[in-house]
Amino acid sequence: MYELDGKYGYSTEKALDVLANVLKKQKAHPLALFYMITLHAYASPTKYTNVALQAADEMETMKSGPYTGLYRYPPALHIPRAYLYFTYGRWTNMTDAGNVALNLHDNYVTFHTNGSHSSALFRFHASITVHIGLLQRAKFSQAYSILLQLKSTVNVTDGTSPLLSAYLGAYYTMAARQYLETRNYNISRYKTMDLDEVYSTPLDPTGRGNAVSEAILLLARGLQQINRATMSKARMEVIEGRLANKPQFDQDRTIVEIFRLQLTAHQEYGYGDYTKAFDLLRQAAEKEGSLSTHIHDTTYLYIPSWEMYGDLYSKYDTQAHTEQFYLRALKKYPGRTASMLGVARSYQRTMRTITYGENVRVWYNKVYNVWRHSDTEFAALTEVEHAVTPDTPWWAKYVVIGAVVGVGAIFFLVIVIVADKRRTKTDSIITISKREIQETKAMYLASGVEKKPLGDRPHSLEMQPRPVSATDSIPGAPSPTTQMVQGVAPAEYVVAPQDVILDDIVAPTDQK
User: On the chain, which terminus has fewer CB atoms closer than 10 Å, C or N?
Assistant: First the structure.
């Protein structure tokens, strides 16, 4: 797929042309999809990048198939997809592809007993892709759970098993990455994770990737001790001695040397020799740039030197334009949230906008779109959430206060108007009632009815019946007593018209 210089050769380019033509005619051709994805995932050519990403999306639906040839082990179809998404910083897709590979592996192992060695290694490759994606998405708790699962596997693996070295390498890699990706966020749970306890057994340097796996853990251990201010000169010499061991493969030697330069730069910065520290990081960045860009470049999985340079320089000069360093890191490692956050912070500190129209909030939005479903609360996430929230203008609070006062005044005015109308209606009723009383009195006076003094008025309870004479007895008429029982007032108890007291007339309660 690629030459010794790390660039894909003529045969790879011709293969890409053939695959692209096949996919034009049949976009779901399984082998064409697989090879197009694999070439881009491992050789990283710039040709047909969009076709490769479309092929990876198309293969999302291929979760089963004829288990012959390349399909004999289904997870092998999806691990290249995860690597391809990783190359372009599509972390959600990467996590999903890794999870599909894990599920297919578990189903495969349930029904197959052969190939346990290779299938177990594939499973840990899939676990690594899921772990990387979760860390970039700030799902630190889920990533830590995967790390603990791998630790349990290491603890129960027989010491004579050929898988132990592979398991340890994956465990060292995940533990180092868990610390490196969270070291600047001050998350107490991972800050207290002791990497000295993780590093239990040196790995066989002759194994492919073992030297790099051990070296990255040594780098993480060293940075942890520097941050804790527990790094002694003797301990630093031990770590540097381990990093000085020359791996078997040239590219592995270059990667281990990059780790050594990064660690030494942080140590020199702690000593106060800033010039030397930045010079060492520049050397590491140059070596990083000389590496091939295919996925076997293990530094893809760790902290870019230019990102480290930006982190240290931001501490050294709080007003420096450090976005240039983070942008260099993003050019080779697109989508890294720590680098994007560094760009946003740099522009925010210097109060500048980007020349091509983007502003600080755009960069914070890029980080937020990746972190929005984080499962961990930490200060940097709060910072990002605050930055993407629109700022409230200074005059907004006065508008709110004015609106509240206005609504209150209107409500009060309505109450006053309603109360006034009710009072006016009541006054009208009272006026009309008084007039009716006066008219009634005048009518009685005009009819010659005399108004008796108070003392001469008979009280209704004190009225006495007049004697009944013989002339009042009418044959067949009911007696007065019978009238009282039947509820009809007899004549003796009826008050004469002249006994009506006009002053006792009560005003009507309703106007007719």
Answer: C
